[in-house]
Amino acid sequence: MTSSSFEPPRRVLMGPGPSAVHQRVLDAMARPTIGHLDPAFSDMMEDLKGLLRAAFKTENVLTFPVSAPGSAGMEACFVNLVEPGDTVVVCVNGVFGTRMVENVKRCGGTPVVVADEWGAPVDLDKVADTLKANPGVKALAFVHAETSTGVCSDAAALCRLATDHGALSIVDTVTSLGGIPVEVDAWGADAVYSGTQKCLSCPPGLSPVTFSKRAAEVVETRQTTVRSWFLDVSLLLGYWKGEGARVYHHTAPVNALYGLHEALIMLHEEGLEAAWARHVRAHQALVAGLEVMGLQMLVDKAHRLPQLNAVRVSDGIDEAAVRTRLLAGHNLEIGAGLGTLAGKVWRIGLMGQGADLGYVQIFLMALERTLSDLGVRVPDGAEDAAHVAWGEAAG
Ligand SMILES: *Cc1c(COP(=O)(O)O)cnc(C)c1O
Fold first, then answer.
1. Closest residue (by CA) to atom 6 of ligand 1?
2. Which member of 4, 122, 222, 349 has the greatest number of CB atoms within 10 A?
3. pTM recorded for the entire structure
4. Domain pair 23-268 / 272-394, same fold
5. Residue 1: is its pLDDT beyond 90?
6. Is residue 241's pLDDT more than 90?
7. What is the torsional sign of CA 354, 321, 146, 384?
8. Closest approach atom of ligand 1 to CA 147
9. Could you say which architecture CATH assigns to the domain 272-394?
10. Which CATH class is domain 23-268?
């Protein structure tokens, strides 16, 4: 066997994640590995937790990165809060809501599903009616930014509904954190998880989570032990707690955490509000360009995520052929539609570093070329329109 070092191709990442990673983050990850119980590493971890609290806009003590991707953050919230016999209302308007249902079942709970169309936000009235009809619900779970459709749901209102009915809220902010406002304390959210490879522009593999005091108390007063040893928050805390001796739980992914730390510093330097505004600007530039080309967005304007754009594939265009050609000919990755939207939409990510005019223009140019190669004629001027919209959005 003759194996050689892997040299990945240089790609422009404009799919649903991973997003483009800044060289500063890659450089941070290449620094020397030290022991995960080394006091120097502990200091970095303390700083990292503070940066995460700032990003989540929370004072929650229980805020730390789970050493595994976003799906593990999701699982951590469910296994710690849901016990056999609990009822959990789960909002499903895309792929990630269906995974929440699966999590409730595997914890021995009973999911009560509030289903909405893929491409529409979670319907608040239906959730209110469902909570009313099911007294004693343990938690309300929903996805803030549904990456499978590009829809934003009203997290503040949903968390309020949960609180009003005495239920905990479990919130997926994997695609929202760093891209659009996530305000854990202002929402009164209880268990919130995210990921690193979307709007934080970090490589995949870590899942920041935060638990409110109320959620922490629920974990402490469980009747049964948490079914997962690795994700049991009470055990994890022995390691992530600041003061006193850290107890070995698992070997933290040291270099991956250097990367997250650096990415959060970059977010802090730019400022959360500035980062959110940049995502909106890039989105407006993209939509202006797509409109010139005669392409339409899946989601109503009022509920669109700036960082994940689902674009309808017009009749007569081969959805998969366009993606294949973008990757092979332009080194540019976008996402396909999932589930009921397979073959019907492209998903264009403008996440983190990718939320910039340069990325939008590269994409529009590559799409024009690709469509033209496939014999589809579209009007000219998309890049110019994007440029103008980018300027206008600056105010
Ligand atoms: C990507 C994503 C996840 C899963 O994250 P992984 O890091 O792929 O495990 C969960 N929820 C949403 C909304 C996502 O976009």
1. 70
2. 349
3. 0.97
4. no
5. no
6. no
7. positive
8. 15
9. Alpha-Beta Complex (3.90)
10. alpha beta
Q: pLDDT tens for residues 5-43? A: 999 999 999 999 999 999 999 999 999 999 999 999 999
Minimum CA distance residue for ligand 1 atom 2: 174
Q: How much is the average pLDDT of 94-101? A: 97
Q: How far is the CA of 148 from the centre of ligand 1 (A)?
A: 10
Torsion (CA) 346, 351, 353, 357 in degrees, nearest 10: 60
In angstroms, the CA 130 to CA 322 distance is 42
Distance (Å) from CA 231 to ligand 1 centroid: 17
Give the orientation angle of helix 272-292 with respect to helix 254-270, to 10 degrees.
80
Nearest CA to ligand 1 atom 14: 174
Question: CB count, 10 Å around CB of 95?
Answer: 18
Domain limits, the chain: 23-268, 272-394
Contacts of 102 (CB under 8 A, 6+ apart): none
210 Cα: distance to centroid of ligand 1 (angstroms):
16
**Using one digit for the tens of pLDDT, what is the confidence trace for 132-155?**
999 999 999 999 999 999 999 999
- Which among 67, 71, 170, 207 is the best mutation to test ligand 1's pocket, defined by most ligand atoms within 8 Å of the CB? 71
**CA 70 – ligand 1 centroid, Å:** 5
Residues with CB under 6 A from ligand 1: 17, 69-71, 74, 96, 143, 147, 172, 174-175, 195, 204
Residue to mutate, 78, 92, 95, 96, ligand 1, most ligand atoms under 8 Å from C-beta = 96
Smallest Cα–Cα separation from 344: which of 318, 321, 313, 300?
313
Ligand 1 probe mutation, 93, 147, 202, 347, most atoms within 8 A of CB: 147
Q: What is the largest CA-CA distance in the chain?
A: 67
CA distance 222 to 213: 14
